[in-house]
Amino acid sequence: MTKQRGQRGERQVRLKPQYSDLYRGVPSNEWWPAWLMAEKLLDLAEAQGVSPRERICDPAHFEFRGGQSPGPRLQDLRTRRSDIVP
Asked: Where are the alpha helices (DSSP H) in 1-86?
């Protein structure tokens, strides 16, 4: 299944304009699917040689909307790169 822009119930994120200088190449004030923004930010971090240790979409820098509760079957799923146990 391929994900498409605007998919119903999809979590979305946008960069706050005052932080646009910190994220070159990421448009501010434009809603993106959260998964796509996360991929973009991971690519930027990798290009800069930085390994993200915090959430990739800092809640202080981004706004979020939409999305649905993952439900009981996904409660134990590790959803952040930092959640990976070696």
From this structure: 34-47
